Amino acid sequence: MLRKLVPLAMLFLVPACFKAPHDAEYDRQNPNKIYIDGKIKNAVDLPVAGAEIKLDTDVWDTTNVEGFFVAESIDPGIYKLTITGSNPLYDTVIIDACSLWAGRVIEDTTFFFRRAVWDMENETNLLPRGWRGQIGIWAITPDPGNPQNRALGVIAKPPTDGYFGILVCDPVVNDFTYEVRVMPLSTNNPGWIAGIAFCYQNIDNYLYFGYGQNYAALHMVRSGGDSTLVHRPMASQVDQWRRITVMRAGPRIEISVDGQLIIEASTGPFPSGQIALFAFAEESSLVTFLYDDVWLEPSN
Questions:
Q1: N-to-C CA span, the chain
Q2: What are phi and psi of 64, to 5 degrees?
Q3: Within its chain, how far is the Cα of 195 from the centroid?
Q4: How far is the C-alpha of 27 from the C-alpha of 44, rounded, in Å?
Q5: Average pLDDT of the residues in 83-96
Q6: CATH number of the structural domain 117-298
Q7: Which CATH superfamily, name and number, covers 11-113?
Q8: Is 224 left (phi over 0), alpha (psi -120 to 50) or beta?
Q9: What span, in angstroms and rounded, lies between the C-alpha atoms of 172 and 169?
Q10: Among 40, 151, 146, residue whose Cα is nearest residue 91
Q11: I want to staple 82 with a disulfide (CB 3.0 to 4.6 A). Which of 54, 62, 170, 240 is the partner?
Q12: Ramachandran angles phi, psi of 121, nearest 5°
């Protein structure tokens, strides 16, 4: 079994990235205070909205939709800087013993979460930021089983041998932990597959993990041909959320469903690639799947 790449909840300790006192701009209008502004981004360089910035126990600002924050009129001193995301799936950024000198203006500072998290409640467009559709009609939509929740839905379009959908996230990653909650809806016919893809090169080359009503399987698509690498029995139902987690370290991968390890395998010919969402049904005009609480933590 692979060692876990990272704990599910962790502290991301970053080096102090404030400018040294002799380099930072000096504010002659406010010689006894400190001003800081900057951005909070996720692991794939996208801005994080709703992140909370604390100095010791005081909240100084919450980031806007572009990840921007401002903290001003700060008294000089040594602080513990803590940055938390609005979604608990984010890690926590902590800088201990952060020295802030009187009269300093610190601008354009950027902090990064170790994870990228896509909670559909906080997305403002039809698709989550950083994702693009390859096949199928994808859009963020109300969850029919819980109207208070929004999720990413897909109605797949028909290729020659069935109906399927793929949505791809742009960055290329090597080692990673990737997790998704997925739910096939009762409008599907018996031949559905709900799952995720990774090591994605293009529409003809990638790995995907999917589950149906009675099984779970890891597949490799290479030069357009689909082959089964691992097949396991696993009972599943429609209208039920399942949590899929993939961890990759070098050539080895582990795949868990709802926290239970079910597949250990090799990634084969793909040393890196993109992550994606995957859905398939043999025949239907309303092939509908929902996805939510997507997160990625690259290790490279």
A1: 20
A2: -85, -170
A3: 15
A4: 34
A5: 91
A6: 2.60.120.560
A7: Immunoglobulins (2.60.40.10)
A8: left
A9: 8
A10: 40
A11: 54
A12: -65, -30
